[in-house]
Write a structure and sequence with these properties.
By secondary structure, this protein is an alpha/beta fold. About 45% of the residues lie in helices and about 15% in strands. Strands 2-1-3-4 form a 4-stranded parallel beta sheet, sandwiched between helices.
């Protein structure tokens, strides 16, 4: 690690496997750019389906490189869990932001953009823009 400040990405899913797979896909598609800190936070501590504030907080701490942390979520309660952590104020690194974006496409866009050294606003904008991706 060069010490370069990069936006970290946390991918929160109800499933550990989904979170890990989306993280792997996003890293793989980001190409040869700077290695972006990406952490999945899926499921519960016991390996079940659900969300865990402890796993999310640990993932956010692990990717914090001083440029902010973008958190993308899959469904309902994962959003509520992240919002609750943000309200508490001391569980997540400073500069952590919940990003309203589609989970898979937004994750890829966020990681690709962060790999260029972009700031948190640009990473959020790229992820959010993924809502407009058309498939047909």
């Amino acid at each position: 690690m060069s010490g370069e400040k990069l936006v970290g990405i946390v991918l929160v899913s109800h499933s550990a496997e989904v979170a890990a797979s989306v993280a792997e896909l996003a890293r793989g598609l980001s190409g040869a750019g700077t290695s972006v800190p990406v952490a999945p936070a899926g499921g519960t501590e016991g390996g079940g389906l659900g969300t865990s504030s402890e796993l999310i907080a640990a993932a956010a701490a692990s990717v914090d490189r001083g440029a902010g942390v973008a958190v993308l979520t899959d469904l309902g309660s994962s959003v509520l869990t992240v919002k609750a952590l943000l309200v508490e104020g001391d569980e997540l690194p400073a500069g952590t932001r919940l990003v309203d974006a589609p989970f898979v496409e937004g994750a890829v866009a966020a990681v690709v953009t962060a790999s260029t050294g972009a700031d948190l606003d640009a990473v959020e904008a790229a992820a959010t823009e993924a809502y407009s991706y058309r498939k047909v």
